[in-house]
Amino acid sequence: MDVSAVPPSDGPALETARLILRPTRVGDFEGWAAFAADAESMRFMGGEQPRPVAWRAFGLMAGSWALYGFGMFSVIEKATGRWLGRLGPWRPDGWPGNEIGWGIVRDAWGRGIAFEAAVAAIDWAFATLGWQDVIHCIDAQNERSRALAQRLGSSWLRRVVLPPPLGQEVDAFGQTRAAWHARPAQGGRRPR
User: Fold this and answer.
1) 3-7, 13-17, 162-166, 176-180: lowest mean pLDDT where?
2) CA-CA distance, 133 to 115, in Å (whole number)?
3) pLDDT tens digits for 162-187?
4) Could you tell me which of 144, 130, 135, 137 has the C-alpha nearest to residue 171?
5) What is the dihedral of CA 85, 62, 24, 121, to 10 degrees?
6) pTM as predicted
7) Measured between alpha carbons, how far is 146 from 179 in angstroms, rounded to an integer?
8) Which residues are paired to 133 by β-bridges?
9) How far apart are CA 140 and CA 85, in angstroms?
10) Which residue(s) pair with 158 in the sheet?
């Protein structure tokens, strides 16, 4: 299939200093598949996925945008146009709350990409989706994501069980809309 002939998906595009966050497009799949095949990147997200399984997960995200008008954004580096990961609002049936989740390619770790994108996604979820709270579902061993949740101002809330087929027990970190807007400016974000 010639992906250049496929029109971009409708939906919002959020812009930060270094990133563009937009709905998943078919041309994002190569980056997605490489990310899903990386054992270290997928360590806390069910493990590496062969290409056909990655395609199904990719389609699931695009389907969320089509059905609900939101899903995780593709995170695109402005300077290069490179797909860096997926991040944003996620709430499939049976999920334990309104999640802002993230998964960033390993060679972009430590650059503040997830923080920058998460700030924009949380702002968007509160302003556009009208969410009153957000959670982040994080494996107890995932120190990097736990630190990011805390940097975003989220606190540990409770243990939750993700719905089948995942079925794993994880920690839910989170905060309310009011708490998010009461935080002082941080990392370029200004309270509204």
Assistant:
1) 3-7
2) 18
3) 988 777 899 999 999 999 999 876 55
4) 137
5) -70
6) 0.88
7) 18
8) 176
9) 22
10) 172
